[in-house]
Automatic annotation (TrEMBL):
InterPro entries: Rho-like_N (IPR011112). GO terms for biological process: DNA-templated transcription termination. It comes from the Bacteria. This is Rho termination factor, N-terminal domain. Residues 98-129 form the Rho termination factor-like N-terminal domain. Residues 1-30, 60-83, 101-115, 122-131 have a biased composition (Basic and acidic residues).
Length: 131
């Protein structure tokens, strides 16, 4: 069972976690794993339980929406068998555009340019930093 007191979560967050957990269990995921995944999803989407007094970082509605959209896109690609980090065979000459490169190739370019924070960047962030 996931650690932590769930009393800080709103009723809506708790219902969402229950729904997600049931969905995972229907797919054959063990009960404790389903619960852990459900709470992880709720935490990512809402920034955790409701906090008073300004403790913790609050996500804006825009950030939450972007996280949900990003998560949905990655899940859809995974279902299609397309990994976001897997690229097709490419010409490795310097003439290819950044959007055609894999994350590993972008990481190598960022390493060559000594871009700080590159190890924690997503693919789109690497493209922006290299542009």
């Amino acid at each position: 069972m996931p650690r932590g007191d769930k009393s800080k979560y709103t009723e809506k967050q708790q219902r969402k976690a229950e729904h997600i957990e049931e969905s995972y269990e229907e797919k054959g995921v063990p009960e404790d794993e389903a619960e852990a995944r459900a709470w992880a999803t709720v935490n990512k989407q809402s920034g955790g339980g409701e906090r008073k007094g300004g403790s913790g970082r609050q996500k804006s509605q825009t950030e939450k929406r972007a996280d949900r959209k990003d998560s949905a896109h990655r899940a859809a690609k995974a279902r299609e068998g397309d990994s976001p980090n897997r690229g097709s065979a490419r010409n490795n000459s310097g003439s290819s555009s950044l959007t055609e490169l894999s994350k590993d190739e972008l990481m190598e370019k960022a390493r060559e340019r000594n871009i700080t924070g590159r190890s924690k960047m997503r693919r789109d962030e690497l493209i922006k930093a290299l542009s």
